[in-house]
Amino acid sequence: MAEQDNHPVLGAHFSVAGGLEKALTTAWELKCRAAQIFTKNARSWKEPDLSVDQVARFQAMRKKTGMVFVASHCSYLINVASPDTDKRTQSMASLVGEMKRSGRLGLDAVVLHPGAHLGHGIEAGLIVAGQTLKDALSRDEGDFPQLLLETTAGTGTSLGSSFEELGALLSALPPRVGICLDTCHIFAAGYDLRTPEALDQVMDEFQRHMDISRLALVHLNDARPKLGSRKDRHTHIGMGEIGTQGFRAVMQHPLLAKIPKIIETPKELDKKPMDPVNLKRLRQLAH
After folding, report:
1. Is 219 labeled as catalytic in the residue annotation?
2. Is 141 an active-site residue?
3. CATH assignment at residue 251
4. 120 is annotated as an active-site residue
5. Model's pTM, two decimal places?
6. Structural domain harbouring 94
């Protein structure tokens, strides 16, 4: 599928039930140009090995569908900032496993939450996370995808809810490490996205701490709680606190227009499938 300037690289997080390639089939049916998947159970430490056949089926389907951008999302159990050595070692091993699997599949990126300091303080957490990530990336034998650190809502002791924190973490890492900006998360962390003017200020703030070239993916999720709530509660596009005007601004912002975008909104509303609805809304707001 050739790059089409007037059509956003837009997709969703899709289920891999029935095979990894099924996610790409679903994406194709919804006319998506991007997709995000789990390559394993996101709430398990078990690290599965991919068979040659699994990889071949996935790659064949990607070629058939012409997906422009495909990412995986790491296990939710990973905490690269953990002050506990054993947990940190386990987290690094899981991250390396994810990077290797995603590399075999030919994915473009792996999305990771930056971790939580668990009461040891932000500065200490950033130092630990930076070292753990450097150690993990040192295991690259040339097949690792790009690693993307996701913005967080700031719940509990989680790192990465401010651009300042993410900028500090990136400064300790290779240039190939990038950022995934989640609209619900940054809104919950206090970054207002509800108007074009507010979004301009947010993007200016982003660029004060990080080069815009590091921004490689946007997660599009409306937010149920109010601005600055520190609560990570996704809802459907235009049905939350960010609202339709906010997503129109995001879809049309010149710094964001060509960046791949993935929705992680709830799959249903009153038993009605909602991916088609949310994707249609965003396509309309892009023009």
Report:
1. yes
2. no
3. 3.20.20.150
4. no
5. 0.97
6. 10-39+50-285
